[in-house]
Design goal:
Largest sheet: 8 strands, parallel, barrel
CATH class: Alpha Beta
Shape: globular
Number of domains: 1
CATH topology: TIM Barrel
Number of strands: 11
Mean pLDDT: 96
Helix content: 40-55%
Order of helices and strands: HEHEHEHEHEEEHEEHEHEHH
Number of helices: 10
Strand content: 15-25%
Structural class: alpha/beta
Strand order of the largest sheet: 1-2-3-4-5-8-10-11
Bound molecules: glyceraldehyde-3-phosphate, zinc ion
Radius of gyration: 18 Å
Length: 283
Amino acid sequence: MKLVNGFDLMKYAKEKGYVLPAFNTTNMEMTFAIVRGLNEAKLPGYVQISSNNLRLSDPQTIAYLVKKAQKDQDTPIGLHLDHGKSFQDVKACVDAGFTSIMIDASQLPYDENIAAVRQAADYCHFYGIPVEAELGAIGGKEDDIVNESNAKTNPDMVADFVERTHCDTLAVAVGNVHGLVAKPHIDLPLLAKLAEVSPVPLVLHGGSGIPFETIREARKYNLTKINYGADLRSALVTTFGQAYEKDHKECNLIELSLSSVEHVAERAKFLVEVINGKNEKIA
Ligand code: G3H
Ligand code: ZN
């Protein structure tokens, strides 16, 4: 199946009542595992890669891998740029065939954030691709990037921000954090307020570590997408770490890589099922 355009994917999810997970990839193993997990669950979602991870896997490479993994499958999957840090990255990903884009200029002053998002939105919309923007600051640690600030999204700024940026979805800071170190404290009343004032659907970053009951509540508030990064990365790293702990001379890369794909795929399947209330273990 072809990669699905981001607007079509959101429309499909809305019609079916799904919330879309966006799983972060870094390399071939993560990419194959995510696609496998979504297809085994028969539930739609995104493979996404952050600008930071493009240092290892360039947009063309990741687009090739996702298309290859998805070739004979039929679960709708989109390919998303996560935390796009520059207009160059946005263009490179659109050129490579990404079907959804985030430009993250949330660290800039308000008007500069707006200008950066608007520039990306004008470009992406020409190609029919939706744009996610971020308002507020999500704390925690994403790979090696630490964000000390943790400013919640101000509901009074949302309408103006969306109107001036032309963004299609909005990533909000409501006590969610990146990574597995800091603890998330999701402010559900704030999320409810943001859903009320936002003209576009919301995106929740920092899915790893958020209790599933909280996710279930959060789903009521116009959430279209939930990002999971560290949770899956941990499944991959643990596969190698445990093997090394057991035997410091372990170097069977192919077998370990294959089992890492299996472990990450299982975890991706579990997460997409749980957030959609389809896994009776927790449902
Ligand atoms: O953009 C990526 C995510 O927000 C991932 O956050 O690593 O805490 O799941 P996480
Ligand atoms: Zn994020």
